[in-house]
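dude i think i finally got it to work??
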Amino acid sequence: MTAEEAALRAVAKRPGVYRVSAFFARQLARVYFRLGTRGSENIPALGPVILASNHVSFLDPPLIGAFLPRKIHFLARKTLFDSPLLGWLIRQLQAVPVDRDGGGGAGLKAILDRLDGGAGILLFPEGTRSPDGEVKTARAGIGMTVIKSSAPVIPVRIFGAFEAWGRHQKFPRPHRIRIVFGRPLHFEKLRAEAETCDKARLKEIYQEIADQLMDAIRGLKQD
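look at this
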């Protein structure tokens, strides 16, 4: 094993609190939500990767992360780190602190630093939870993140989580959930073009990537 591979394995390894949290999340999800997954073999075991998912529920980050064999970093609002118990937990899970809307230069730098170090990052291109469970339009920020990194992008779609715990429900209820992981997208041509194009075209590229990602997410089927 080379030093580089050893370093990537260390980055992908799930720490103890992460493993325990994932174990209990899986057991609860299998019983309460009858959760199943498909396509997790599409996610590389080592090296940087972006998981781009639709966003319909508070359940999305823990359920997606719990069913993967490698560690996945997710975003959390900075204010959550101030909570004694929750702040401790999300630090153990190595969440990425961001502003409320997930934007800003500091948030982007934190994401890119993790990716440059070989980590996997879970992002929600829509930026917020869907009010009706339907896949919405992505913000251009996901395109900027993709362009500034070299990581492959895995489209992810979670089905049933809105019915289980949508944004207008106070408590989760039993409902079948299914998570589907698509094949990796690489965006080589757009990344190459972005290196030399002007600023106006660069903004277009960001949105093109965002739109292509959402199309890929919409194209994922439950079965």
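The domain at 3-218 is CATH 3.40.1130.10 (Glycerol-3-phosphate (1)-acyltransferase).
im so relieved honestly
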